[in-house]
Design a protein that fits this description.
- By secondary structure, this protein is of the alpha+beta class.
- The protein has three helices and nine strands.
- An eight-stranded antiparallel beta barrel has the order 1-3-4-5-6-7-8-9.
- Mean pLDDT is 84; it is low at 4-9 and 18-22.
């Protein structure tokens, strides 16, 4: 009887133990949400280009399977002629995440030359800050032979 009770409690304690989630799930749960772009730089050889255009705002939205981004000019256009000159960029698609290696598969983009390309990044999440760093292969998008190092920093948008 004593052995049966010990065996029963042992089995119950094993059933109560929850297996720990794989590391990828932890990164994915931290990645899911809405992010505001703080800075974006591209480095070609020894030249740094700031991609975060003054007077614009960009957000990235990431769910379990897809991402999207939206960027536009903050100033309200006074008329239809000025409206035509406003910056608006949008895109999205699916993504893969393995450890901290994140690959975007761009399916839709207002700059259509980018559609159908993959963009690979290494992710780092520190508190509410997302940093993604990767090499953009410019020849794949018809922009010359050089590659550039991209670094984008985002802060989580809270409700």
């Amino acid at each position: 009887m004593k052995k049966t009770i010990i065996l029963l409690f042992s089995c119950l304690s094993l059933l109560c133990c929850k297996p720990s989630a794989p590391k990828e799930d932890s990164i994915k749960s931290k990645l899911t949400g809405s992010w505001l772009l703080l800075s974006s730089t591209a480095t070609r050889k020894d030249t740094v280009i700031h991609n975060d255009v003054p007077g614009t705002k960009m957000i990235k939205i990431i769910n379990d399977t897809h991402f999207s981004f939206l960027q536009h000019t903050l100033e309200v256009a006074p008329d239809s002629a000025a409206q035509a000159n406003r910056l608006f960029v949008a895109g999205g698609g699916s993504y893969d995440l393995t450890g901290n290696h994140y690959t975007e598969h761009l399916e839709f983009c207002s700059a259509q030359a980018y559609e159908g390309n993959n963009f690979e990044f290494d992710l780092e999440i520190k508190g509410d800050t997302l940093i993604q760093t990767g090499i953009e292969k410019l020849k794949d998008i018809g922009a010359g032979e050089e590659n550039q190092l991209l670094m984008e920093k985002y802060i989580r948008i809270k409700n």
